[in-house]
Amino acid sequence: MTISIGNDHAGTDYKFAIIEFLKSKGITVINHGTDTIDSVDYADFVHPVAEDVESKKSTYGILICGSANGVAMTANKHQNIRAGLCWSKEIVKLIREHNNANILCIPARFTAIPQAIVMVETFLNTEFEGGRHQNRIDKIPISC
């Protein structure tokens, strides 16, 4: 399994902790995020993660910024991305089971690092239920 991860300045510490967790599980990580706390534009780090997931270079993506709204909005501009903003493991479970989310968006200013690790673990260990949920997912893309 390969995970692409991206973050802005608000998520740097979270990213490093998540990468350590993922590597301890034998997961390959592609780091598209900033490694500093200097202010950056989150979109510059979101698009490469979304492109990795779209092209299947990565199995899933993880994005982290202050509120996670900006990264989620940006990622969801990509046609085959279903990025979910989560602040609890219960919501993470639902975005995987019901929405088949392929990118997890974490709000660094509203979660703690241990909580973020639990959310990542939940994201990776939760399967999509399919069935009636697949019908709904099929209606998400807009043909241009």
What is the element layout, followed by pairings?
Blueprint: E1 2-7, H1 12-24, E2 28-31, H2 43-54, E3 60-65, H3 69-75, E4 83-85, H4 89-97, E5 103-107, H5 113-125, H6 132-138
Parallel strand pairs: 1-2, 1-3, 3-5, 4-5
Helix pairs in contact: 1-5, 2-3, 4-5
Helix/sheet category: alpha/beta
Number of H/I helices: 6
Total number of β-strand segments? 5
What is the mean pLDDT? Answer: 96
| Biggest sheet statistics | 5 strands, parallel
Q: Which sequence of SSEs, written as H and E, runs from N to C? A: EHEHEHEHEHH
Global Rg: 14 Å
Which of globular, elongated, flat, extended, rod-shaped describes the shape?
globular
Share of residues in strands: 15-25%
* Largest sheet strand order: 2-1-3-5-4
Separation, N- and C-terminal Cα atoms: 32 Å
Model regions low in confidence, pLDDT < 50 over at least 5 residues: none
Q: Helical proportion?
A: 40-55%
3D structure, described in words:
The protein is of the alpha/beta class and 144 residues long. 42% of the residues lie in helices and 17% in strands. Helix 1 (12-24) packs across helix 5 (113-125) and helix 4 runs parallel beside helix 5 (113-125). The longest helix is centred in the first third of the chain and has 13 residues, at 12-24. The mean pLDDT is 96.
Main traits of this protein?
alpha/beta; 5-stranded parallel β-sheet
Overview in brief:
The protein has helices at 12-24, 43-54, 69-75, 89-97, 113-125, 132-138; strands at residues 2-7, 28-31, 60-65, 83-85, 103-107.
